[in-house]
Design a protein that fits this description.
five-stranded parallel beta sheet, 22% strand, GMP Synthetase, Chain A, domain 3, 14 helices, Rossmann fold, binds zinc ion, alpha/beta, globular
């Protein structure tokens, strides 16, 4: 076997495509059998579809006959069988951790239970991504998302520590304090989002910080599956003197699912790069939403995941809602056999917005604001404030018959702000505008605009 320091798992990463497909299918088939035998939720769904694992002999059978499942089906099952639902496939005593998903679709939050092995799998899910980017155990890392609100930031931070990074969790510091820490303890790597990376770049200019001079050891910056353009990625890499890493994660499938390799987010010819799926750990399908057939090269589709390692709550053909562009392994020069998805273009099929790490479904805000008897209409905006913080703003107008009593109107705004925070987990600014200043909607349309990418 070739010794190649780029590789994290040399045996797997040097398989041929057909060897990998054979391994992946053996594991998918074994997962199907195990889930059928141990998880009442999935067994019921398979029985209703008249499917037994023995009849599923090929990937083609798997795709055509094994039903997909989505977030709503899991939520409904958890309502019917509280608190954890009937998907649990292990003895209750083995459940060591429970997380709620971040945010709510207005229909409640899913619970995800983990065994010790699930936790360990989730912590190691970032290791290949870090290794491929040249980040090594012992390197100094900064984790910039506040910890403690949702499962994602907690498991990411623990994942960095598990990999052996000396990690500073600076999520609760302001930008200047973070940069001062970074001057004191020079970083090899940090993890943030594109919006905040723009803000940090502006702050560096203001404070006279030149990352190439002041952070000479910096190798990589993880920007994590938010949209960005290639010229912007190139500009950031030149300014910071570091490679950008893009990743795709799924709470349901237990953490990091796809990542760019050493070739990064774009190729030498300016085309976008590719995030590889770890196909020895997950059966990742990218399916056209119209036909449910696999997306072809460079075609758009939804990510559907089957995770081989999840013990407590298996994931069998879970529709993630992630809207991606499929890329075969042949499009990347690294030689790994893993297919993947395009870097920098992941979005959603549903209306979900990600705000400061929290998932927000605009319908949940509609349900609160439009239910208020004095509110006539509202528009929502997500933008970036001057301090680099992502800001959600609700602009509403009152019904014509509501008295022009400033104190009473202000009370309504305060009341709505508290209800939105309590029910969605996202703090928002709520302000009154005049009827002509916002768009009106007759049907169930998108009242929200995401203006984060327009912000310089
Ligand atoms: Zn590659």
């Amino acid at each position: 076997m070739r010794m190649d320091r780029r590789l994290f798992n040399p045996v797997i990463e040097q398989l041929s495509r057909s060897e990998l497909e054979a391994l992946r299918w053996r594991r998918a088939h074994a997962t199907l059998g195990r889930v059928y035998a141990t998880s009442p939720f999935y067994r019921g769904r398979l029985q209703r579809a008249c499917v037994t694992p023995d009849e599923i002999r090929t990937p083609e059978d798997f795709r055509r006959r094994v039903p997909t499942v989505d977030k709503l089906a899991i939520l409904e099952d958890q309502h019917e069988h509280p608190p954890l639902g009937s998907a649990i496939a292990v003895d209750d005593a083995l459940l060591e951790y429970c997380f709620l998903t971040s945010g709510t679709s207005g229909k409640g939050q899913e619970v995800h239970a983990y065994t010790a092995a699930d936790v360990s799998d989730s912590l190691t899910s970032w290791a290949a991504s870090l290794h491929w980017a040249g980040v090594l155990p012992g390197d100094t890392a900064y984790h910039m998302v506040p910890v403690g609100v949702t499962a994602g930031p907690v498991t990411l931070l623990a994942g960095f520590q598990h990999y052996g990074l000396r990690t500073f969790a600076v999520g609760n510091m302001d930008g200047q304090a973070r940069l001062e820490m970074m001057r004191r303890f020079s970083p090899h790597f940090f993890s943030t989002g594109p919006v905040y990376l723009r803000r940090l770049t502006t702050l560096c200019h203001e404070l006279g910080i030149e990352p190439r001079r002041d952070f000479p050891a910096l190798k990589a910056i993880k920007v994590g599956s938010f949209g960005f353009d290639v010229p912007w990625a190139r500009e950031m890499e030149v300014f910071w003197g570091a490679k950008l890493i893009d990743t795709y994660a799924s709470t349901q499938a237990g953490g990091g699912i796809a990542s760019t390799c050493e070739h990064g987010t774009y190729l030498a010819d300016g085309r976008r790069g590719l995030m590889h799926f770890p196909e020895h750990k997950v059966y990742a399908e990218v399916l056209s939403p119209e036909t449910s057939e696999p997306a072809r090269e460079d075609e758009e589709g939804e990510v559907v995941l089957t995770s081989f390692g999840r013990e407590a709550m298996p994931i069998l053909r879970f529709r993630t809602g992630g809207k991606v562009v499929f890329k075969s392994h042949r499009q990347c020069a690294c030689g790994r056999p893993f297919d993947g998805i395009e870097a920098g273009t992941v979005s959603r099929y549903d209306t979900m917005l990600k705000i400061r790490g929290m998932n927000l479904w605009p319908e949940a805000v509609d349900a609160i604001v439009l239910a208020h008897p004095q509110v006539d209409e509202y528009n929502g905006r997500v933008e970036v404030a001057d301090n680099g913080r992502e800001l959600a703003r609700v602009m509403l107008c009152f019904k014509p018959e509501v008295p022009a009593d400033a104190a009473q109107r202000a009370r309504v705004l305060v009341e709505l702000r508290a209800q939105i925070k309590a029910r969605t987990g996202v703090a928002m600014e709520v302000q009154e505008v005049q009827p002509g200043e916002i768009e009106r909607f007759t049907y169930k349309e998108r009242r929200w605009r995401d203006q984060r990418r327009q912000t310089p």
